[in-house]
Amino acid sequence: MHSQKLHILNIPELDKIFIEIKDYFNYDVNTFTEKKDLIKKISEDKKFLVNSIILVNQKDFSSLKSKTDEKQVYCITKFPIKISNLIDQLNVRLIQQNYSAQSNININKYILDINSRILKKTNNELKLTEREIDTIIFLKNENKPVKVDMLQKKVWKYGEDLETHTVETHIYRLRKKIKDAFNDDTFIQSKKDGYIINE
Q1: What's the pLDDT tens digit per position in 24-66?
Q2: Structure pTM?
Q3: Domain residue spans in the chain?
Q4: Do residues 64 and 18 lie in contact, with contact meaning Cβ atoms separated by under 8 Å?
Q5: Residues 2, 28: contact at Cβ < 8 Å?
Q6: Domain topology for 106-197
Q7: Is residue 174 packed enough to be buried (19+ CB in 10 Å), middle (13-18) or exposed (0-12)?
Q8: Tens of pLDDT along 131-154?
Q9: Any idea which architecture 4-103 has in CATH?
Q10: Which one of 28, 56, 95, 103 counts the least CB within 10 Å of its CB?
Q11: Are 89 and 97 in contact (CB under 8 A)?
Q12: Nearest to 106 by CA among 143, 77, 137
């Protein structure tokens, strides 16, 4: 899970406040005095805006919202503002972003909806368990073959005392479910050095 990030563009009044109180909230706070610096950072780093809100003034709002998702830009129109209300608004937006992001994870020709625990392809859907979702997400994020003992530790959270065939049986069943639902036996591939998502 990415930490929550707050990017403040050219609002010196808020810079000081959030830097002082950031230890009390779950935010990484970044301040920008120049819009061009923020836009450059957005264009260079695709993950920069993950789990983020950009606080802007009215002057910068319209030009910045065209560069990103409008839900990620929060415009401060007037001062004074009540910080507790602002934080409530930011938290609501971050929850909405997370829900939306988890509803549409693209994996090859599939869409994985973590919220509904469904794997979709065209008009076909497959209901998955939480462990199956965790397995798919872990394999997708690794981008290389993953050995059974790594899945055992990272997904199942077990040590060496769990027999490896237990994990292999779960993978086998997941692969069979996907084959039965989508006629696809290549989604999770078994290689000599572990399992990998076919992307």
Answers
A1: 777 788 899 999 999 899 888 878 888 888 989 888 887 787 7
A2: 0.60
A3: 4-103, 106-197
A4: no
A5: no
A6: Arc Repressor Mutant, subunit A (1.10.10)
A7: buried
A8: 999 999 899 888 889 998 888 888
A9: 3-Layer(aba) Sandwich (3.40)
A10: 95
A11: no
A12: 137
